From TrEMBL:
Organism: Faecalibacterium prausnitzii
Gene3D superfamilies noted in UniProt: MFS general substrate transporter like domains
Tree of life domain: Bacteria
Name of the featured protein: MFS transporter
NCBIfam families: gph (TIGR00792)
Alphabetic keyword roster: Membrane, Transmembrane, Transmembrane helix
Length: 470
């Protein structure tokens, strides 16, 4: 079996980390727009809350289904690309994303109801197809750039920095632009914003594709009679891969909590704190944990281990949202200060997890090779992404339904009653707290690559690969 083109001799350095960071910055130029879909299509376009919750779930199921399809397609692709097939797919998807994000924000609020439904579903599906083509191979690239655990942790950290940079840019600027002085949404701005973000994303992807070097052979075989790729067997390997399952359950919990709380959080700032324009800035607090921990991530991993560090961080986050639930967060400056304080504590707890989460999947891909004798980067990451995407649909749908049950009326926009606004104040920490309890279970119980086991796996794989090269 032929080997893919690799550059094993190329020294790992800052360019690798910046290139990988640029990829997630580019992804975030599109992905960050998802946070405004619910508010846009209910408050500006006028789709009914329950109908919107259903549509969100439908498109997210499609979103989830196409991830393993794309992943299997990438794994099974034997075409000889000039550099690397993963990079080729990433670039193709990036080109489509340039305009695809804007299709989710076509501004026709006077269109008939059925036309609005079709516009939302069609626009989202087109955007999602291109996003998947770019993002699934991009997530798989981390395990191919380096097989060193410290370097992978650094790549994971820089991916989070790239994500954070995109999130900070969009999170701080978009709310200032799209909310008026009465805290109501100016939805007509979203289409142009999405186009601009698409162009920025394309530039970032180009930098990533041009500067990424592949050092790990993607076609390692441990037996001469290794069978051809089988998607069903790959799926079976995934569900028996405890690190992959644990590293997947954690973001499932995160997305259900984060997206479940997103609608309530936007209403909270519109109608409770009455300051929607700073909502993005407050929401960006969580990203600063990456800045705090990134200089120390290598030492933290070496001293404590990845599993141990992310589990402890999840416990701190859970405690932060217990505080948010019980502290007197009133609709004034004092209450807002307490809210921000709780978010800062959660940021400190989640910072190390944000740095390391992606490297956990790279380790899970290695675990697949260690236990089952095959590398299935595309499929393993795609199945991971499949369940993440399901959570990304369940979260906002559940959050919108709960907010509506608690009295949220989209037609009132920022003029929700104080009773409804107060219910949002409690819904936000409840959604987050539930997610971090699940994360503690995912990292602490299911994910089984503690510091000692990870070292043993790395040693065994190096020995096998050395024998395979002889």
């Amino acid at each position: 079996m032929g080997k893919s083109t690799v550059d094993a001799s190329a020294g790992f350095g800052l360019r690798d980390k910046l290139a990988y960071a640029a990829g997630d910055f580019g992804c975030n130029m599109s992905f960050a727009l998802k946070g405004y879909l619910t508010i846009y299509w209910t408050q500006f376009m006028g789709i009914d809350n329950y109908l919107m919750a259903s549509l969100l779930l439908i498109v997210q199921i499609w979103d989830a289904i196409n991830d393993p399809i794309i992943g299997a397609m990438v794994d099974a692709d034997t075409h000889k690309y000039r550099r690397n097939k993963f990079l080729a797919y990433i670039w193709f998807g990036a080109i489509g994303l340039t305009v695809a994000g804007a299709l989710c924000y076509l501004p026709f609020p006077q269109a008939p109801g059925m036309v609005k439904n079709i516009l939302f579903v069609a626009g989202y599906m087109i955007w999602d197809a291109f996003y998947t083509v770019a993002n699934v191979p991009y997530g798989s690239m981390l395990s191919l750039i380096s097989d060193d655990p410290i370097q992978r942790a650094q790549l994971s950290t820089f991916r989070s920095i790239g994500s954070m940079g995109g999130g900070l840019l969009t999170g701080m600027l978009i709310p200032v632009i799209i909310y008026d002085n009465q805290n109501n949404l100016r939805g007509e701005q979203m289409f142009v914003i999405a186009l601009i973000m698409g162009v920025i994303g394309l530039v970032c992807f180009r930098f990533m594709v041009t500067n990424t070097k592949v050092r790990v052979d993607t076609t390692i075989t441990l037996k001469e009679d290794a069978p051809k790729f089988n998607v069903m067997k790959a799926f079976n390997n995934f569900i028996h891969n405890r690190p992959a399952v644990g590293a997947t359950l954690a973001p499932i919990a995160t997305f259900i909590g984060m997206y479940g709380a997103s609608t309530a959080g936007q209403i909270l700032f519109q109608a409770y704190f009455k300051n929607a324009k700073i909502s993005g800035l407050v929401g960006m607090i969580s990203y600063f944990g990456v800045f705090i921990f990134s200089p120390f991530v290598g030492r933290i991993v070496k001293r404590f281990g990845k599993k141990e560090a992310v589990t402890f961080g999840s416990v701190v986050c859970a405690l932060a949202y217990v505080l948010m639930l019980v502290l007197p967060i009133t609709p004034d400056g004092r209450g807002l200060s307490l809210y921000v304080l709780c978010q800062i504590i959660a940021m400190l707890g989640g910072g190390i997890g944000n740095c390391l989460s992606w490297s956990l999947m790279a380790d899970a891909i290695d675990y697949n090779e260690w236990k089952f004798g095959v590398r299935e980067e595309g499929t393993t990451y795609a199945l991971h992404s499949f369940f993440r995407k399901l959570a990304q649909g369940i979260g906002p749908s559940l959050g919108l339904v709960l907010a509506t049950k608690l009295g949220y009326d989209a037609s009132l926009k920022a003029a929700q009653t104080i009773e409804v606004a107060t219910r949002m104040r409690y819904l936000v920490p409840i959604m987050y707290l539930g997610s971090y309890i699940l994360m503690i279970i995912a990292y602490g119980v299911v994910f089984n690559l503690d510091k000692k086991t990870l070292a043993q796996m790395e040693s065994d794989l190096k020995e096998r690969r050395a024998k395979n090269e002889k």
